[in-house]
Amino acid sequence: xxxxxxxxxxxxxxxxxxxxxxxxxxxxxxxxxxxxxxxxxxxxxxxxxxxxxxxxxxxxxxxxxxxxxxxxxxxxxxxxxxxxxxxxxxxxxxxxxxxxxxxxxxxxxxxxxxxxxxxxxxxxxxxxxxxxxxxxxxxxxxxxxxxxxxxxxxxxxxxxxxxxxxxxxxxxxxxxxxxxxxxxxxxxxxxxxxxxxxxxxxxxxxxxxxxxxxxxxxxxxxxxxxxxxxxxxxxxxxxxxxxxxxxxxxxxxxxxxxxxxxxxxxxxxxxxxxxxxxxxxxxxxxxxxxxxxxxxxxxxxxxxxxxxxxxxxxxxxxxxxxxxxxxxxxxxxxxxxxxxxxxxxxxxxxxxxxxxxxxxxxxxxxxxxxxxxxxxxxxxxxxxxxxxxxxxxxxxxxxxxxxxxxxxxxxxxxxxxxxxxxxxxxxxxxxxxxxxxxxxxxxxxxxxx
Length: 449
What we know:
The longest helix is centred in the C-terminal third of the chain and has 16 residues. The chain has about 450 residues and is α/β, with parallel strands linked by helices. The strands form three sheets. An eight-stranded mixed beta sheet has the order 1-4-3-2-5-6-8-7, sandwiched between helices. A two-stranded antiparallel ribbon has the order 9-12. Strands 10-11 form a two-stranded antiparallel ribbon. The chain is built from 18 helices and twelve strands.
């Protein structure tokens, strides 16, 4: 049974029925090995960021920079696991008129997540034990934003799961999905096949884990997983839980970029943008050979993304924003929007560096970097990117201060800078009617003082 709400602050769970699309083995796995491994007491020391679910990024990619999450927003975390996404969303939406539904088939996982939220005093999360395939029948209502990380690819029919989520998404709502990337997981799937040979007939999960751990300690250097060890560390970080999820899972599939686009269409959704690792999917911006880069740039978007996936070779997961219609991304061509710097940089700070060094290297929370090059005119543009001026106001100010700079040329310059910094989520857009959502520093301050 699920425990009673901890601290008297959280709503008791609603139970959904079992659903045949989940293998019993999958359910049992997550009861014995809740994933990812989390110690609720760690909430006293750190806040784990679910990077693709940062509200500034979601607003930018999914709501044209115009969504005010402070009023009446409903969020579904579908396959909530041990709590990373719902706790992070709970912190971001703390004190606002918002409700988060955390849905999972594993009672053990929900218990961990509930304990983490209780330690933070989060009262905006409602806990539901059930299958995402039953989400409409559960009567939970409709949602403005759905986050589903690492769940759909464990279903017998992932499209059925995606359609179930679409059925409870508002028409003006959006989703963030994470599914496995096929090319980046080649070594993982070879290991899974190896362990099926070795564990054939073995029913005890712990013995399967122990046998797999022994193999991992003695992999030859020529093994494909050994060669991709820098990509995957679940077994090192999470111990037995990570070993089972990565190498012994009874049901998972992965997607190439082209398969991912087809999957979204089959689920009634349109691709908006990638999140984590976006720059990998845009080799026309970073491949060094100019001739090849120009050839890549001339290809259709999906083909460019597929080229980036194959060039990179390490994309074990795809994090993607999607919605019922495709016209959702904020655009630098919308002069009513406010450009602002995310993470550590400021417009005047970038301007000063451009004037001194002729370039700025920015680094986002994912570790991605982007190099912005320019002279006095670009520096003047950034002087006026102060988080309050609109695109139109920034352009007008720069043209007034730079003799000979036309407005069209200034807009082209700003668009080019936007394309560079957007690769690493540094330059974002919002409408004046929407707030500057809580920054990473502000979230940490609320959590730890």
